Structures are given as structure tokens and as C-alpha cells.
Amino acid sequence: MSEETSTPPGLEALANHLGYTFVKKDVSSSSSSDNGDATGSDSKGSPPPPPPPGGHRKRTKTSDSDQSKKDKDEKDGDTEPPVPVGSLNSSANIYWNKDDDTWTSKEPEDTKPAEGKDTIGHAIVIRQQKSSDSRKKYEIHSIVVQSPSLKIALGDILEDYPGVCCNLDRLVFKAPFQPFVHRWGALLEYMEREDLETVTKEHMTLLHTVLKKELGDTIKAFEDYVTNGVVTYEHAWIIFQPQAVIVAPSGPGEIVAVRLKNGFYAETDDGNVYSMNCQRVDWNGKSFGWADEHVQLPEFIGVKPISELPIFPLAFHADQESVRLGLIERGKRFAALSGYHYRSYNGPALQRTQNGNILVQNNGRIIIDTDSFCKQPDQSPPPIRTDWNTELSVKEEADAKPIELTDFQYMLCTPILRGYSVKAKKWLSFYINHVKPIKWDDGAFENLVLPKTQKKLVMALSKTQAASVNNFDDIVSGKGKGMILLLSGPPGVGKTLTAEAVSENMRVPLYMMSAGDLGIRPEEVEQNLENILEMVAKWKAILLIDECDVFLEARSIHDMERNKLVSIFLRLLEYYQGTLFLTTNRVENMDPAFQSRIHVHLKYKDLSNQSRRQIWSSFLEKMPSNFSDGELEELAGVMLNGRQIKNLVKTAQLLALEEKKTLSKEHVDLVLAIEEGFEDE
């Protein structure tokens, strides 16, 4: 049975719209094809290609214009090249299409300026936007102040407020209007002035009405926070007003007072914070000035007392006046320690590493010297600015009298001093509250076991050199002005102690170093030695190079690298103008060139019984002990050097403390027996 298939409604029309020709399929033809007939086959018996899906084939559409362009292109061989990017001396405008969130080159037809002749005469233009608050239809986006009288008034009210300039022709304030919240009290006081002109008073009243309506909730919240001494993280910006003094932690048990510039909410790897850019007063080795300080208030939940925040305004401190006076007193000590000073220190210090600053414990004497600190390769000076406040003037001379800052500037001084730890031999940052005057050992030089003539000579030479009385000069200016003393002898006879006792008696720093501190390469040794000699001369310190045999040993043709070290050492010492002590155990191998450069050579012999008794007595007098004259004579007969006696007394004292007894010969004998490898039964 043969019949035509029915066409779905609209299918033919859809095919024509898309550019296809709809072909109806004959069922009988299909049947014939199924029975093996070759209907529609080509001359070779191949079937025609199948129609596209849906029973239709695509129709090629070529317009007359397209065909003409194609013919022209084929004739010309190519099209005209495009214009090079950015080559035209012109500009193009594109416009934001708010409906589909895209840019377009077509200018919207229904757009006209929101501000113009209809708004130009108003004192204030209020720009409204749809409110996200379900209780409001609109909320203020920003306020444009156009009144000249109002601009003058706001110039007084918002004076020195960061980011605000009331002299602009177009003065715009955006929500949440932080300047007005922070200066709300000043605005109310200004409105109460009796000398205001009528226009100014009217415009101020208008502005107050607008702000009161918009900021009413914020102002009320601020008043509640101040009254109850609490705040939320969301409203933390309200209590941190620009130019206010805030206190923040600065090391273990330390606080720093800083002046707030501005603040903003931010996201960090450690969580949300209210970040604040502040200023402190600092010293860079040459001048006082403002240095930047960045502090962060971590996010907290709910309401929290302001005084319990890690960072808060000084005005909210329970003992504000006492803290202020303490900060001023500390600032005066900081200013007095500008330049370089020799002090004692016992407490935490900051050491700079590749991973940032770390806390280290430092006990001993330090040299405060920010200028030399900043010249070290791994350190950097605090960037300061003196142009923000003319009262922070420049101090040219490092040893000049400190300039007089104001109490406000003293209060904002950093609690950190920079300098050198003599014991640790490191450049560190020190907290000023742990810096103390040095307790000098007045008996150190008297207890020095040396012949009286040698002691007198050493002290006279050192004092004269330090006082710069020695004006003797070489033929070449600046050469040979130093004082070099060579101390030679066996270990433990007092060579190092001599330099220590001299520095203690003269109240000057002792810079101790060994050959290992200078490096091994000639270039490295030269650079390090130059820096050390420069600093020691600046500090008027005594320099001690202990066990300097590597520099004193005679040169040979078989070791050129060591010859370079000796030559460098000889050349630099020629121009050193301070006091230098050299110690060695092998004076017989000294290079002849050194012999002519040494002013005094002191030879130390092995200790005599009398010298050993004096050393025993000097150590035992410093602690509770019970020794008879006979016991001291017996101990003096034991062949020990000074260093061995010191170590033995220290060990015996620890033993006595463990037994809770007074140090006696019994404890010393026990330690001696252990040292000798046996015990007395």
C-alpha cells in the first residue's frame, strides 16, 4: 500500500526561514530502494548522497553585493590592510550599558547630566541611591558641597584631617562620612560660635540637618561606646580618629605611642584586621624625624572593652596621665642616647635575620650607635621625614648635644635603640628600658698582676693616647699616630686581662677580636679590618686583637696568600690613631716589619708563687670563703696559670653552693684532685 508521509505543522516554513529547501519523501520510492532498485543512481550505479537531517538540504545563499565583492577581490588579489593599532591622532568614546553590564560604542539616547542648571544654585547637592536597608527607600551616596561659606567653615572644622582639602571647587564627601563622624564635636562647637555670618550659619544648619538624619545611628553608637568604654569590630573605625595618639605593643612588656594617620579594614592571611598607618619619632643616626609605623587590630566578636584591646587610643586608657608622663620621660632618655654611648644591658633584644626580626637574650655591655648600625650590610636606617614638622630639626654632629623636642614628640619616641653587643659581637636593636649605666670595676687595674713599672707605663700611654694629647705625627700626615702595645708570653699570665683592666680604669669600651673574626680571604680581611678600625676610633675604644699570630708571623715566599694578609695588616695599622693591644704566644716568629711599628713590647713570664697567691686572693675576696694564710700559701705553690685558677675557683664555688656550705680549701682540693685524675681518700 502506497501513501505520502504527513508534514509536521510549520516544519516547511522553518526550513525556508533557515535557508533550507524542504523535500517531501515518497514512500513508494523508499520501498523500491529497499527492494534493490537503482532508482536515482548515477551512471556508475552509486546512490545519491543522503539528504540532511529533517529531510532537507542546505541552500547556498549568495547576494548580488557579496558576489560583486568576491569578484572584485579575485580581480584585485587582496583586501586593504587594517589600520595599525594606536596610529590615529584621535580618540574614541565607549559607554557603559547598565542593562546588560557591557560596554558599547553607541551613546545612550536618554542620558543627560544629573547635575546642572537645576542644582548649581544649591548650597549642598545630596546624591541618593537605592538603600540596601529594608527600613529605607533611599540612602545618601555622597554630598557635594557648593557653598563657598560652607567650604570656609569646613576648612576650620576638618583642619589637618587626612585626605580632605576644602579649597577644591568640587568638594565631595562620600558615605559613611568618616570626617564628620570623627569631627562631630568640632562641628557642633563651630555652630555655637556667635561671630558666624548669617549665610554661614544657615548653611551650617542645613548641613547639620542632613548629616544628623543620615548619621544619627552612627553618632548615637559612638556616644554609647564612649559612655560605656566598649566598641565592636564593625565600628572600630569610629574610635580611631586621625591625628589621635594610640598605644600599641612593641616587644615584651613594651608599648609604643604613635600618631594615627588613617585606617582601613583589610583581609590578611591571618584573618580580618583593621589596619592603621601611623607615625612615630625616630633617630636615623643623623637627625630626628617622623617614621612610619603600621599596626593592626585583629577582628573580634561582639562588644569588647576599649581598654582591653591590644591597640587603642590613649584617651581611653584608665591611667592616661600617668602613661603620658611615663612616655615623655622615656622619650627624653631616648633623645639623650642619640649619638654613641657605652652602656650595660640585660634583657631581650631584636636580631635581624633573613626571615625577619627574632628575639634574643642579651646580657653585657653594649655600644649604642645608630649611625654605625645603619651602615652594616644586613641593616637599614629607619626612613624618616623631617619636612612634616619643622620642630624636628636636623642634628648634624653625632656627639653634639641632643636637640630639644616637644613633650608631644618625646611621647611618640620609639622605645628601640640600635647598636652593638660587645659580648655577642652582633648588631642588635635594644629596648631602652633595659639599658642601664655601667658598674665599673675600680679594682680591676689594681688587681692586675704586673710589675709596678709596667703597670704605670701601660696606663700612662693609654690615657695620653685617649686624651689626644699625643700630637706627634709622621712625615706623612695622619700616619703613625696610634699606640700599639704587644703583649707576649705563655697562656694565662694576664695578657688579655691587661687590656681589660686598662679599659675598665679608663671608662672606655674594649673591642675584642681575633683573627677568625676578620675572615680568611685578603679582600674580606681588609674590608672588615677597615670597618672595625673606623668604629673603634669613633668610639675612642681600646682595640684588642687576641692571638694575632697569623698576622705577626714572618712572611715567606712559599705562602703568598698569608703574605697578603700580613701586608694588609701592616698598612692599615700605620694609619690607626687609637690604642691597640696585640697578644701572642709566639713572638719569636714575628715579622721584622712589625718590630718597627710596635711602641711597647711587654713580655710576660710564668707566674711566681707571689703572683699566684695574689690571684688566688683576688678571686676568693669576691665571694664568701674560709681560707687561712697557710692554705693560700699552699695553693700558691701549685703550678697553675691565672685562667686555670679562675676556672678552679668557679667550679669549687658551684660545689660549695650545692652542699650549702662556705667555700673552703676542701672544695678546692676536691676539684684539684679531679683535675689531676684521682681523688684523695
TrEMBL record:
This protein's superkingdom? Eukaryota
Where are the annotated coiled coils located? none
Q: Where is the signal peptide?
A: none
Q: Give the span(s) annotated as Disordered.
A: 26-122
Which GO MF terms are attached to this record? ATP binding; ATP hydrolysis activity
Biased-composition ranges, Low complexity, are: 28-43
InterPro entries registered for this protein in UniProt: AAA+_ATPase, ATPase_AAA_core, DUF7025, P-loop_NTPase
Q: Which Pfam family name is an example for this entry?
A: DUF7025
Q: SMART domains recorded for this chain?
A: AAA (SM00382)
Q: Where is the composition biased (Basic and acidic residues)?
A: 61-75, 97-120
Where is the AAA+ ATPase domain positioned along the sequence? 481-608
Ranges annotated as spanning the membrane: none
Classification via Gene3D superfamilies: P-loop containing nucleotide triphosphate hydrolases
Protein name (record): ATPase
Give the organism the record lists: Lophiostoma macrostomum CBS 122681
What high-level taxonomic lineage is stated for the organism? Eukaryota, Fungi, Dikarya, Ascomycota, Pezizomycotina
